[in-house]
């Protein structure tokens, strides 16, 4: 799993951020990845997380407090910009212009952690993918899906249209270009020019659906972001936890997914069962990581928890599931106004977002036609990815 930002990679012989490689997993559906969707009860985290928080904080208290206060000021300023611009804040690039993108646009993509690439696959061809998927499902009625009684997300990974989209020459070019936004430090066992083909599921969400109401979340685990044996093994977030979130990027290690993404098979507008993102990837991830060390006092101000006050809570993190967020647990993110829709999308458009980007989907599909996508993350070739394969 990629746990890095648009930054340097570390020596993979010294730093590892994947906590496991290929292992047997139970069959399930997308709801199993999130506590809120599975209906599972969230128990308090074990005391070892309290001890972990204390050890991460020890000797860095003053730097963490200063960093937190600077972060809150920057969030307040940037949140207003995002709320004002709405979907217009998300960078958009025409496929034909991909090789001529200037530094200003590239920097904006890095800042926002999300981009729309227009017209990657011809519209008619992308529409045909959906018809092929529906035909495939009709021939294979045992296909697992969520929810089982009214499928919206299908556990299909190797259907013919998915293979066509992943291997489309134009999409391969998109992968190459988006991977080029990263850079490595030598030596690094990684190729930023050759992608791996990653098998992921697909969505055909029908008008009126309210079952696939996935709230704000971050993929790639949850408690692992603080664990020394998790992403800590690769030093992925060390600068943030050392009181230096302002540094250039989110330190890196061996990578798996550079970008999450989907290829559209339908036309959708904001509110029509589509994607929302918080386009402040650097600030939001710093906030998520520092939030467990602070509490609101009686005056409504936020202060560092003392050793006596420290608890085991990692807000929204549950072992074995994705990181979830909400306004109560993460108030300074102002999610009610900073979760913005992607712009109107046509068949053949590709939407990519950084793996640390907070994202969600419309609670209700308020459109009149389906909202259909093929999920296709972007993965580079690394020694670890090759071992995983």
From TrEMBL:
InterPro entries: Gig2-like, IPNS-like_sf
A matching Pfam family: Gig2-like
SUPFAM superfamilies for this protein: Clavaminate synthase-like (SSF51197)
Protein name: DUF1479 domain protein
Organism: Fusarium beomiforme
């Amino acid at each position: 799993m990629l746990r890095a930002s648009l930054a340097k990679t570390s020596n993979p012989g010294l730093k590892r951020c994947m906590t496991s490689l290929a292992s047997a997993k139970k069959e399930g559906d997308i709801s199993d990845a999130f506590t809120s969707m599975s209906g599972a009860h969230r128990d308090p985290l074990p005391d070892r997380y309290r001890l972990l928080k204390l050890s991460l904080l020890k000797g860095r208290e003053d730097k963490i407090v200063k960093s937190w206060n600077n972060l809150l000021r920057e969030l307040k300023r940037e949140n207003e910009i995002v709320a004002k611009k709405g979907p217009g804040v998300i960078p958009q690039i025409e496929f034909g212009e991909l090789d001529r993108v200037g530094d200003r646009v590239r920097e904006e993509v890095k800042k926002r952690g999300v981009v729309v690439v227009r017209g990657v696959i011809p519209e008619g061809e992308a529409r045909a993918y959906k018809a092929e998927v529906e035909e495939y499902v009709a021939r294979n009625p045992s296909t697992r899906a969520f929810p089982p009684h009214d499928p919206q997300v299908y556990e299909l990974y190797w259907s013919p249209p998915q293979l066509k989209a992943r291997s489309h020459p134009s999409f391969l070019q998109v992968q190459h270009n988006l991977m080029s936004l990263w850079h490595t430090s030598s030596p690094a066992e990684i190729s930023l020019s050759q992608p791996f083909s990653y098998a992921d599921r697909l969505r055909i969400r029908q008008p009126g659906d309210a079952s696939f109401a996935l709230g704000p979340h971050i993929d790639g685990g949850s408690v692992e972001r603080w664990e020394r044996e998790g992403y800590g093994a690769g030093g992925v977030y060390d600068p943030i936890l050392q009181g230096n979130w302002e540094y250039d990027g989110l330190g890196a290690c061996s990578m798996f997914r550079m970008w999450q993404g989907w290829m559209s098979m339908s036309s959708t507008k904001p509110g029509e069962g589509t994607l929302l993102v918080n386009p402040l990837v650097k600030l939001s991830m710093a906030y998520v990581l520092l939030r467990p060390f602070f509490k609101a006092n009686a005056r409504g101000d936020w202060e560092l928890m003392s050793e006596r006050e420290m608890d085991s809570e990692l807000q929204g993190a549950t072992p074995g599931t994705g990181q979830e967020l909400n306004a109560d647990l993460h108030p300074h993110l102002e999610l009610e106004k900073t979760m913005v829709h992607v712009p109107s999308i046509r068949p053949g458009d590709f939407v990519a977002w950084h793996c640390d980007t907070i994202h969600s989907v419309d609670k209700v599909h308020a459109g009149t036609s389906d909202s259909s996508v093929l999920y296709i993350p972007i993965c580079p070739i690394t020694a670890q990815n090759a071992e995983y394969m």
